Input
Amino acid sequence: MAPIEEVREATARLDKLETVPESAGSSLTALFTRLRGIVLEEGTDQQWRDLVESASSADPSKAAEVAELIRSLQAAPSTPLPPNGWLFADLAVLDLARAVNSSSEAPPVEQ
Output
């Protein structure tokens, strides 16, 4: 499965849950750490600023909020160059997606 498909499947699973599966806890922590660590500079696009702010105020235990953060990261502009730290956040999303998809707590999604 391609990485984007893994992420889409994971967000669909998260949409069906109230909380993020416990087995994905370390991946979830890594994602929030990476999102909050994105380096914002004077010329950083507002969408990136909003994403970092959302990560700072989001409740990591709520699956719907996590799914929305993932969607916001994927929708953030890639031109001009994204801010420093975006790649780590993107990789953390993939790691979380794989953890959610392999969790027995997350309901399967219909293809």
Summary: The chain is about 60% helix and 0% strand. The mean pLDDT is 93. The CA atoms of residues 65 and 90 lie 17 Å apart. The two ends are 12 Å apart (CA to CA).
